[in-house]
Amino acid sequence: MIELQGITKIYKMGSQTLEALRGVSLKIGKGEFISIMGPSGSGKSTLMNIVGCLDTPTGGRYFLDGKNVAGLTFDQLAAVRNRKIGFVFQNFNLLPYSTAWENIELPMLFDGKNHRKRKERVTELLQAVGLYDWREHRPSELSGGQQQRIALARSLANDPPILLADEPTGNLDSKSGQEIMDILMRLWKEGRTIVMVTHNDEIAAKSQRVIRLFDGQVVPERTA
Amino acid sequence: MFGTLVRNLVRDLVRQPMRTLLTLSGVVWGTFSVVLLITFGDSVSKAQMKQFHGMGQGIVLVFPSQTTLPWQGFVKGKPVRVTPEMVEAIPDKVPGLDLISPEFIGSRLISYGRQQFRNTVRGINPPFELMRNTIAAEGRFINPQDMESRKRVCMIGDVLASDLFGSDKPVGRTILIDNVPFLVVGVMRPKKQNSNYNGQRDERCAFIPWTTFGSLYGTKYVSNFIFRPQDPNQTKAVTEGVKRHLAKLIGFDPADPDALAVWDTMEFEKQISVFFLAFTLFLGLIGSFTLLVGGVGVASIMRVVVDERTREIGVKLAVGARRRTILWQFFGESIMIMLFGGAIGFGLSAAVIRAVHALPQKGFTEFIGSPTLNPLVIAATVLILLTIGVIAGMIPAKSAASTDPIEALKK
Fold first, then answer.
1. Nearest CA-CA distance, residue B405 and chain A, Å
2. Which tens digits make up the pLDDT trace of B155-209?
């Protein structure tokens, strides 16, 4: 499903260069549940951005579903992000002035789905995360856990095979965090590939495999 | 998709009502200026052209002067003398003439009862009426029988008529011109006239047959004559023909530029229409600058908006928005402000134009004429509005679309 070969990412800041990733290679199979761990500055976020097609690597090859996406243009990558990848962020990243419904609808608008399809799917997703009655509320009127459930529902709007979660429970109390993890586990069992960045060993323990990053390189694997 | 886009646009604009209003006001004022300046420029031009036509349309005035070149033994400075008979014989010799009239001009004491004025008296022939637009509103103009019998009849200008007679009917009454009785046969239809030559404007003149003028006052030579060519495009050639003919007849160098002073109103009209076009364009340009300031307002506010919504842009890009989609969102917002402001500006100017129409046509409003929102003005304004809107919208929209999603999500 996801295969990285010798991915490097070098940031240039004036005369200084910063090597965020120094040749990362890894394979994530379809239906796997992977955790990525590592201290801050180890390159976790950069790696997630590249896997999520938000950023392009400086070197190396990235096969997504067997297709090399390293050379695609920004708008081509946008289509990949839209259909193949769902994002869940630590700070939810919901649009503050849009309702729960509109937030979930967003990826489908960019995919050009018609009104009827969107309505069906949003209803279905709202019911799945148990927030149908909150559909007309704005993010500021929802609790953190509710916001993250909306964000999760949004990430699933176009039914992507891959879910990328960047510390999805980082801003939540333990009960809400648990709810989110339950949903993620359920999605994994339904066959979705899940890649999650976390600092929390307890949460990482729920995944099948932990990839540890240090100083821009993968620390030799061990199964969790 | 489109419905959602519009709904979101409206929500974004309504969210900051004060800011939207202020931004809008710049565009409203700009549009208002453009529309009014162009409309009024256009209207003033038309009013002036119309008043210029009040003196006559497509006519050539010829004023005999004196020679400035020696000719066949005569030194320069010889007066050029033209009689009315010579003038009326010109069409026999020069082809292409439609109408021609000699003109004697004098200042005479005109009285009726206790009213007495020193006004201009013009001695002319019947074709003068059509050429100089001195159409009778009541009664008639001078006719061939008047000419033939040297009748003491006159047609008087509308202002002179009311000066002499007040509200009484002038036609059929007798007035005195230098104590000689004249029968009033007609009163001129009021007209707007902004150009003139020797003497008062037609509204204050008395028109009598030149034959009568000549015999009463002993005048032999015309003050000027007027002709109208059949084909307006042949004006130059016909004028040359008249010059050559008279040069031969009277004896002066046909190449003498000043022996006959010529006022070709067609040529003059071309010049003033070019002037008024430039005048209107200049006003439009000033208006456009005002609108440009409004556009700059929109652009700078949109920059702020883009800045504030960097995170929103980041989220949208992350969930699969293409750069083009973001571009259109912000571009659409700018264009919407421009169009909405433009519509209000149009409305306001339409109201002002209506108000001007409601004013009585006197003095200033007479000068302005009647401004109308004609399709050309609308098209020009919309074009200016769109051009500025596109530029003002594109700059912030481009910067929004080039947002780096990773940086944006960190904010």
1. 7
2. 999 999 999 999 899 999 999 999 999 999 999 999 888 888 888 999 999 999 9
pLDDT for A221 equals 64
Q: What percent of chain A has pLDDT over 90?
A: 63
pLDDT of residue B210: 96
* CATH code, A30-57+74-223: 3.40.50.300
Q: Is there a contact between A150 and A171 (Cβ–Cβ < 8 Å)?
A: no
Contacts of A74 in chain B (CB under 8 A): 322-323
* Alpha-carbon distance B313 to nearest alpha carbon in chain A (angstroms): 9
How many CB atoms sit inside 10 A of residue B249's CB?
A: 13
Residues in CB range of A165: below 8 A, 6 or more apart: A87, A88, A184, A194, A195, A196, A197
The confidence score (pLDDT) of residue A224 equals 46
- What residue of B is the nearest CA neighbor of A156? B319
pLDDT for residue A222: 57
Q: State whether B323 and A89 contact (CB < 8 Å).
A: no
List the domain boundaries for chain A: 30-57+74-223
What residues in chain B have per-residue pLDDT under 50?
none
Beta-carbon separation of B405 and A82 below 8 A: no
| Sheet of strand A33-37, all strands in order from the earlier edge strand to the far edge | A85-88, A162-166, A193-197, A33-37, A209-214, A217-223
Structure tokens at A133: 């009655």
- Does the beta-carbon distance from B320 to A105 stay under 8 Å? no
Q: Which of A93, A102, A154 sits opposite B409 (nearest CB)?
A: A93
ipTM of the complex: 0.90
Q: Do A94 and B11 touch (CB under 8 A)?
A: no
What distance lies between CA A133 and its chain's CA centroid? 26
